[in-house]
Design brief:
It contains 17 helices and 13 strands. With 433 residues, it is of the alpha/beta class. The protein is globular and about 55 Å long. The protein starts with a helix and ends with a strand.
């Protein structure tokens, strides 16, 4: 129980945080989804929007910048949060801290305000599969569409947070991701109703399950009403089963469509499941139901050194997907290897380099892993990203000389461009904001 008290302790009460460590691929000079960060780093004098879909109820009269409590809302509230990145720095200074390795960054990501979108009970964005509902006139949809209109491509990135978190911290993480996505397209933070307290883990797992339909409907309506070219999803920890189950339900709803047709309908391009707090067998069932066919590609990052998920395993008595490295039965390996859209990645070697007690938040705090996520979103395969794997194994892994391989690849110019020039095939979202 003592372990549970620190399980996934990723909640922050501050309005700002230091900009995340620079992914090692950017430091080396490899292409990244953000492409040309010069334009992205011109954000030092204005606010960056992060669109909010919140399953939490608002609390009338609540003081402070966060208007939400922790109770569930039947109809999610929509809004736009605003964040500053690198305030007080020049664009050149922010560019340097964005693209170079530094353990003492002064660039801050700071929450400034949130504006809730007025809506009536009849204006339910979460109706789906009903031609009578058209949300093009919805004020929030129009805001997202305008943001897409200002971008080179109509790409949407969605961040789905984990356990014991609240609006402000989740918004800051989403803004960091958006920063390294180059401020292209629109960034959405899906705010499922975490209890925002250490002892709320069981409630949070129930709330995540409750939120599956909201996420499913959000994907369906964004693809249709915003005319998105592509949707990229980055889910962490307890947020991962929301994504997996929502995509599974979409696939079952549209079981009369081919995999190509269902992917074209929902525009989901890349899905990242980082340290997923999900029952392994439930994930295998989702594969059997074809959840992965809704997406172009799915990457699962796991580590046997993840202590947070170790606490979860003790609580549930079942292996978690995010700790499945080295623990797979032969039949489980077979199911995983039969899904060509699926990439399983062992992050433990990276965690040894950047030690963290819980070993759970590596998806954006570990420069090796964040670099690989960027390459995955860009469309590179595991071999192109310098990962290695034995022929009969399921998990790709980071080699011990990973930084040297990344630098060598950059020197050889195999990617065909430098970090300051957006690659021609950068059709995915950009990791910047």
């Amino acid at each position: 129980m003592i372990g549970l008290l620190v399980f996934q302790g990723c909640r922050a009460m501050k309005l700002s945080r230091q900009l995340m460590p620079t992914p090692i691929g950017i430091v080396a000079g490899l292409p990244f989804p953000g492409g040309n960060f010069v334009e992205a780093c011109n954000c030092t004098k204005h606010e960056v929007p992060v669109f909010i879909v919140s399953g939490r109820k608002t609390k009338p009269g609540k003081r402070g910048p966060n208007p939400f409590g922790n109770e569930r809302s039947q109809q999610p509230r929509l809004g736009t949060a605003y964040v500053t990145i690198g305030k007080g720095l020049t664009p050149e200074q922010l560019l340097e801290q964005t693209t170079t390795e530094s353990n003492r960054k002064t660039a801050k990501v700071e929450f400034t305000r949130i504006e809730l979108t007025p809506q009536s009970e009849s204006d339910d964005l979460f109706h789906e599969h009903d031609s009578n509902f058209d949300h093009h006139d919805n004020a929030w949809i129009q805001s997202v569409s305008r943001q897409l209109d200002r971008s080179q491509r109509r790409d949407i990135a969605i961040f789905v947070h984990g356990y014991n978190t609240e609006l402000i911290d989740n918004t800051l993480v989403a803004a960091e991701i958006y920063h390294y996505l180059g401020h292209h397209g629109a960034m959405i933070s899906f705010e499922w109703p975490s209890e925002s307290k250490l002892l709320g883990y069981v409630q949070d797992k129930g709330n995540a399950n409750f939120s599956t339909r909201h996420f499913r409907a959000m994907i369906a309506n964004l693809a249709r009403d915003c005319s998105a070219d592509s949707i990229t999803i980055i889910a962490h920890s307890a947020g991962s089963p929301i994504v997996v189950n929502a995509l599974r339900e979409l696939r079952l709803i549209d079981d009369d469509l081919t995999a190509a047709q269902v992917q074209s309908k929902y525009r989901v391009d890349r899905v990242v499941l980082a340290a997923p707090d999900m029952d392994l067998m439930a994930f295998l069932n989702a594969i059997r139901d074809g959840f992965h066919e809704v997406a172009g590609q799915v990457a699962v990052y796991a580590s046997p050194k993840d202590r947070a998920l170790g606490f979860s395993e003790k609580l549930y008595g079942n292996l978690r997907l995010g700790r499945a490295v080295g623990n797979l039965e032969p039949w489980e390996k077979e199911v995983l290897m039969q899904a060509p859209q699926l990439e399983m990645i062992d992050a433990s070697a990276a965690e040894e380099k950047y030690k963290n007690f819980l070993g759970h938040n590596y998806f954006h705090r570990d420069p090796w892993v964040s670099s690989d996520i960027g390459g995955f979103i860009l469309g590179d395969g595991p071999l192109e990203r310098n990962l290695v794997k034995e022929e009969d194994e399921v998990f790709w892994r980071f080699p011990r000389d990973y930084p040297a391989r990344i630098r060598q690849r950059a020197q050889q110019g195999s990617a065909g461009t430098s970090q300051q020039a957006a690659p021609a095939n950068a059709t995915k979202l950009n990791f910047s904001g």
